[in-house]
Specification:
57% helix, mainly alpha, two-stranded antiparallel ribbon, 16 helices, single chain
Length: 335
Amino acid sequence: MQQQAAGGRNRAGILSPALAACRLSVSRRLFALLLAGLAVLGGCIQPPTRNQPEDQRMGESTDLLQPKPRGPVDPAQSTPEDPKAPPLEHDVKLLSSDLPLQRVQADNRLRSAGSAGVLAAARFLAEAEAEPAATVEALRFLEDVDIQGLDVPTREEVRRLIAGALRHENALVRSHAARSLQVHGPGSQRTSFLEAIGDPERRVRWAVVRRFGDNPAEMDATQREVLISFLQVRKRDRFDEADVNKDLQVTRGEFSGSDEQFQKLDSDGDGRVSLEEWTAPAPAAVRADVCELLMRLHAKLTPGLEPIGYNPYAPAADQQGAVDRWSEWSNALPK
């Protein structure tokens, strides 16, 4: 059988054993040379030997640069380098600042000051030259703080100063003053707060209605009579009694009531109460809110009785009988 000599292959295309052994030997030698080259190359790029003492010195210097551990921060701690805190009176004015950050910081400082911060805000209400916007923000601060934790004299002083703002010429100031007393309770300022139900601003009147309507026990017989008096038509004979010199005008010296009552009678503010001002009934809107508060008191104090009817929009002179029955109801309650 004729053999094929080309390429050293037989008919099946398989390498001869001698040729296969030769190729394997060459491959092994090439691989050994490659490994040797890599070993030489690797030795050329090895990093130089590190200086161990230098490494140790650098490690020690790094430890020295680490900050020392700190304990909890004490907010009350101060140093001579710290700037002085502004006076609390200044912080009250900053409550109305145009900058939000100043408002927040002033609020935080006043709260942190405790009773001193609350008193500073309350005393600011008595400043005659204060802008209404600043007074409103001071009242908003007082609405939000808790005054029940203050001692009794401080708490009553705060209420007295808030009640003074009920006579402010600005309606928004009076509204927030009434709101503050509604939130915290009027305390010893019950009568002053109750008389605010005659205010021309309805938000003031409704603060009174809500407070005493929810807490009828805060009113005694004297306060209930003050409330009912807003429904009464003042009679001519009482005017004649008050008019000592018979000049058909009642001055403050002749009037036996409080300054607030005299100012309400003196509608034109001329310092004298005429007969027309004396006999004029309270506005219908005021009498409507007075009637609403009376109905709430009646529902809580005498829930089993039928309430007394009164129409605040009808002529007051025609309903004097209903007013008398309200007085009888109040007098019959337990003292």
